Amino acid sequence: MQIQKDLKSRIQEILQKHNIKQVDLAREIGIHHSTLSLWMQNKNKPRKQDISNSQSTRIEELLERWIATFHANKGQGMGTGQFRLPDSRASQFMSHHTVRPVLPISKFHILRNQYQNSIKQQRQEIILRKTQEQLKNNPNISLQQALNQSAQDIPIEPPKHQQLVPITIDFELDGKKIYQTFCWNLNESHMIPETFARIITEENQLPSVIEQEICTQIKKQVQNYKCYYPTKNEMLKNLHVDLRVENIHFNDQLEWDMNNTMNSPEALAELTAKEMGMPEQYEPRIAHALRESISSLQRQMEPKTGEDFSNLKKSTRTLIESNANFNQFKNVMFSNQINFKNWVRCELEYDHQFEWGPSIELLDQNALRNVQKQEDRKTRYVRRLR
């Protein structure tokens, strides 16, 4: 308790001396301001509505690190984003690791926040210079009017549209399998594959020699990705999601409109995980599997170009052959009668109804070994395609 009181007094002293609000401090270390308020009030006992001991320990560690960084920067640390935790939606970028879990404080978010803060600071400096020029040229204008006019002359750069590419990092190192899935934004302006590979290597304490391998796999999969331009017509395709996390096997089959730009794999993954009572770590995995299936179908729908004219000529038929084949098909078509077996729009049988919709299965040791063998075969096949 003495350590907690000492830490609390140091925090209060810094906040009062530098005129820092608790809300800004909570935002800086990446926790909710109400959680920090409970901790500051010494309500850190495991009650129903208060924070638990593990959360209290986590808050103390974050505050100790924040104090050290604050003193190292001599009071200039607020707003740097150095200890901001990744939010829940950022998990689509950093998802599942089979080697070592990702650290709660990611260097990716540190660099992103530093870049965004530098852009904001540059814009503010330009606005101030323009405001000074307007006040000098027009003494009758007020300061607020000059600031508003300068801000309108320098609009905020709108965020770029995200075009996510499903990326799978899969290779072996010293007999240990390294597997990671995430989505890479084609319009990413804050990160390059080389920096991202170095972050993965450092956070998972991997040898630096695999940085080039991770970077190569990211670049290769991004280059092989084909952009799909939807049309106005509806195009329904069957999507199949089949993934495993440890001994939990998730399976789902659904119809997806390829031309509907409002469809979001991330929103569907979040809704499915909540309906099935699954942990949050499944959301990015399901979204990644959906995007992989969608990308595979988009590649299949692309028209084949670059074919040799001789091959096209060999595949064509004469008018006589085409007419004969059409007459043969016509005779077969009218000879068959529509019944229950060949009726396309008949009701699904009871056993086939469970093929559509999500399902969860807990695997035993034998089933787990069989699934792992199937995954290894699928991985080797996918590597050959890449």
TrEMBL record:
Residues 11-46 form the HTH cro/C1-type domain. One of its GO terms (biological process) is chromatin remodeling. Keywords: Nucleus, Transcription, Transcription regulation. One of its GO terms (cellular component) is nuclear chromosome. Its main location: nucleus. It holds the Pfam family HTH_3. It is found in: Nucleus. InterPro entries: Cro/C1-type_HTH, SNF5. Belongs to the SNF5 family. PANTHER family: SNF5. This is HTH cro/C1-type domain-containing protein. It comes from Paramecium octaurelia.
